[in-house]
DNA sequence: ACCGGTAGTTAGCAACACTGAATAGCAAGA
DNA sequence: TCTTGCTATTCAGTGTTGCTAACTACCGGT
């Protein structure tokens, strides 16, 4: 994966995972798969598991152990009230950043056009 | 500044600064000021200077020392060809990420509406 | 008995933004 | 003169984050 992507995921991956959990509860392995489906093809499994541990420790999600038919028990994560609040804050921060960056992008596009 | 903002800036601040330099060359102190004008009110000066050192070492910018009338000499940074290529890659990465996240956001908005 | 898919854990690493302090030049006011 | 204030840059140390790589563990089919 591009190095830029890696760096850009810092600070956003957490929100992305919480957003996925806001759609419906899920366990680690499943989340990794959903991320792949979403287009984040190369996110390491280890990364997701580590992230889940973090958001659990911060109390943003509730966890339930569910036996699996084909493997060790799953840890199913459900976003809770604190997680919901955190996610809202995430959207606000994201919107702010996205707006600024889009503005910059457009300004540069215009500058380039004028220069041609 | 919010902790989320700090984390989200990782990977994007570099692109933002390069984008600012793509508009016109500038020196560190000035860049900090421009960032404030852009709405990034609380980016530490030290952060900007450290970032400038990094992108200089990677050869993304050219540097010229210019005497200042009111203080020590300025280091004026100009984006070069390598920096331009890097910036383009940045826009691609950003667009990809922004698209995915917007999709997720919209999906959740819809989910919430249905639930009401 | 072995292999492949499912599921999770852990240790160590590199990159990045922040804090806080230090350095340095110059101008205007007490 | 001394000091305050603005301009301008540098540096050491910290915390968070995502990645890599290896390991454990459970199950079914060959």
UniProtKB/TrEMBL annotation, chains A, B:
Entries under Pfam families matching the protein: PadR
Domain named Transcription regulator PadR N-terminal: residues: 17-89
SUPFAM superfamilies, sorted: Winged helix' DNA-binding domain
PANTHER family named among the record's database cross-references: PADR-FAMILY TRANSCRIPTIONAL REGULATOR (PTHR33169), TRANSCRIPTIONAL REGULATOR RV3488 (PTHR33169:SF14)
Identification of the protein by name: PadR family transcriptional regulator
Organism of derivation: Agromyces fucosus
Lineage: Bacteria, Bacillati, Actinomycetota, Actinomycetes, Micrococcales
């Amino acid at each position: 994966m591009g190095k830029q992507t890696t760096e850009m995921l810092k600070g956003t991956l957490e929100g992305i995972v919480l957003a996925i959990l806001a759609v419906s509860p899920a366990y680690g392995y499943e989340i990794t798969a959903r991320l792949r489906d979403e287009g984040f093809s190369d996110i390491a499994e280890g990364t997701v598991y580590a992230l889940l541990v973090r958001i659990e420790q911060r109390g943003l999600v509730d966890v339930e152990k569910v036996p699996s038919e084909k493997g060790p028990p799953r840890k199913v994560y459900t976003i809770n009230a604190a997680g919901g609040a955190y996610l809202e804050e995430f959207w606000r921060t994201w919107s702010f950043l996205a707006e600024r960056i889009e503005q910059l992008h457009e300004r540069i596009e215009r500058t380039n056009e004028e220069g041609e």
